[in-house]
Specification:
Elements lengths: L1 E5 L2 E3 L5 E8 L8 E6 L6 E6 L6 E3 L7 E6 L4 E6 L8 E11 L4 E6 L3 E5 L2
Parallel strand pairs: 2-11
Antiparallel strand pairs: 1-3, 3-8, 4-5, 4-9, 5-6, 7-8, 9-10, 9-11
Length: 121
Protein backbone atom coordinates (compact mmCIF):
# COMPACT_ATOMS: atom_id res chain seq x y z
CA UNK A 1 0.00 0.00 0.00
CA UNK A 2 1.30 3.41 -0.93
CA UNK A 3 -0.31 6.80 -0.45
CA UNK A 4 1.47 9.84 -1.83
CA UNK A 5 0.22 13.37 -1.17
CA UNK A 6 1.11 16.40 -3.22
CA UNK A 7 -0.04 19.96 -3.76
CA UNK A 8 0.84 21.61 -0.49
CA UNK A 9 2.59 24.95 -0.24
CA UNK A 10 2.46 28.50 0.99
CA UNK A 11 -0.68 30.51 0.26
CA UNK A 12 -2.08 33.81 1.45
CA UNK A 13 -5.25 33.95 3.55
CA UNK A 14 -8.28 33.69 1.31
CA UNK A 15 -6.37 31.70 -1.27
CA UNK A 16 -6.85 28.16 -2.56
CA UNK A 17 -4.87 24.97 -2.78
CA UNK A 18 -5.63 21.58 -4.29
CA UNK A 19 -4.17 18.55 -2.58
CA UNK A 20 -3.89 15.20 -4.34
CA UNK A 21 -3.41 11.70 -2.99
CA UNK A 22 -2.18 9.01 -5.36
CA UNK A 23 -3.01 5.52 -4.07
CA UNK A 24 -1.57 2.17 -5.08
CA UNK A 25 -1.24 -1.37 -3.81
CA UNK A 26 -4.88 -1.98 -2.94
CA UNK A 27 -8.33 -1.96 -4.52
CA UNK A 28 -8.85 1.78 -4.26
CA UNK A 29 -12.49 1.74 -5.31
CA UNK A 30 -13.42 -0.57 -2.42
CA UNK A 31 -12.46 1.71 0.44
CA UNK A 32 -13.48 4.97 2.01
CA UNK A 33 -10.67 7.50 2.15
CA UNK A 34 -9.87 10.28 4.57
CA UNK A 35 -7.86 13.46 4.91
CA UNK A 36 -6.40 14.30 8.30
CA UNK A 37 -4.29 17.24 9.35
CA UNK A 38 -2.00 18.02 12.23
CA UNK A 39 -0.81 21.45 13.23
CA UNK A 40 2.23 21.99 15.48
CA UNK A 41 1.33 21.38 19.10
CA UNK A 42 -2.17 20.24 18.26
CA UNK A 43 -3.90 16.89 18.03
CA UNK A 44 -4.51 15.25 14.71
CA UNK A 45 -7.85 16.28 13.21
CA UNK A 46 -10.09 14.46 10.75
CA UNK A 47 -10.75 16.94 7.96
CA UNK A 48 -12.89 15.05 5.46
CA UNK A 49 -14.01 11.56 4.50
CA UNK A 50 -15.36 10.17 1.25
CA UNK A 51 -17.10 6.86 0.67
CA UNK A 52 -15.71 4.21 -1.65
CA UNK A 53 -17.97 5.29 -4.52
CA UNK A 54 -17.56 8.98 -3.82
CA UNK A 55 -21.28 9.35 -3.31
CA UNK A 56 -21.05 10.30 0.34
CA UNK A 57 -18.81 12.86 1.99
CA UNK A 58 -18.44 14.43 5.40
CA UNK A 59 -16.40 17.30 6.77
CA UNK A 60 -15.12 18.72 10.00
CA UNK A 61 -17.17 21.74 11.05
CA UNK A 62 -14.05 23.89 10.76
CA UNK A 63 -13.81 23.33 6.99
CA UNK A 64 -17.44 22.89 5.90
CA UNK A 65 -18.31 25.14 3.00
CA UNK A 66 -14.65 25.80 2.20
CA UNK A 67 -13.15 22.37 1.46
CA UNK A 68 -14.34 19.75 -1.02
CA UNK A 69 -13.22 16.13 -1.04
CA UNK A 70 -13.52 14.07 -4.21
CA UNK A 71 -12.06 10.97 -5.81
CA UNK A 72 -11.41 9.44 -9.21
CA UNK A 73 -11.53 5.67 -8.83
CA UNK A 74 -10.31 5.13 -12.37
CA UNK A 75 -7.16 7.13 -11.60
CA UNK A 76 -6.79 5.90 -7.99
CA UNK A 77 -6.67 9.50 -6.85
CA UNK A 78 -8.30 11.51 -4.09
CA UNK A 79 -8.49 15.29 -4.09
CA UNK A 80 -8.98 17.91 -1.40
CA UNK A 81 -9.91 21.29 -2.86
CA UNK A 82 -9.32 23.95 -0.24
CA UNK A 83 -10.77 27.43 -0.75
CA UNK A 84 -10.95 30.53 1.44
CA UNK A 85 -7.97 29.32 3.39
CA UNK A 86 -7.31 30.70 6.85
CA UNK A 87 -4.11 30.81 8.93
CA UNK A 88 -5.65 28.19 11.23
CA UNK A 89 -5.69 25.76 8.28
CA UNK A 90 -1.89 25.63 8.49
CA UNK A 91 -0.92 22.01 9.11
CA UNK A 92 0.54 18.89 7.59
CA UNK A 93 -2.21 17.16 5.63
CA UNK A 94 -2.33 13.38 5.39
CA UNK A 95 -4.15 10.99 3.11
CA UNK A 96 -5.28 7.82 4.90
CA UNK A 97 -6.92 4.51 4.18
CA UNK A 98 -8.19 1.73 6.44
CA UNK A 99 -7.76 -1.52 4.57
CA UNK A 100 -8.84 -5.06 5.26
CA UNK A 101 -6.26 -7.83 5.00
CA UNK A 102 -7.72 -11.19 4.06
CA UNK A 103 -4.42 -12.76 5.10
CA UNK A 104 -4.31 -11.47 8.67
CA UNK A 105 -8.09 -11.07 8.96
CA UNK A 106 -7.64 -7.60 10.34
CA UNK A 107 -7.90 -3.92 9.47
CA UNK A 108 -4.80 -1.79 9.08
CA UNK A 109 -4.46 1.98 8.83
CA UNK A 110 -2.16 3.40 6.19
CA UNK A 111 -0.87 6.96 5.99
CA UNK A 112 0.91 8.99 3.40
CA UNK A 113 4.01 11.03 4.21
CA UNK A 114 2.00 14.23 4.44
CA UNK A 115 2.14 17.55 2.64
CA UNK A 116 2.67 20.89 4.36
CA UNK A 117 0.07 23.61 3.94
CA UNK A 118 0.99 27.05 5.24
CA UNK A 119 -1.49 29.92 5.16
CA UNK A 120 0.23 33.21 5.87
CA UNK A 121 0.53 36.71 4.55
Amino acid sequence: VQLVESGGGLVQPGGSLRLSCAASGFTFSSYAMRWYRQAPGKERELVAVISSSGGSTDYADSVKGRFTISRDNAKHTMILQMNSLKPEDTAVYYCTARIWSSTSKSWSNYWGQGTQVTVSS
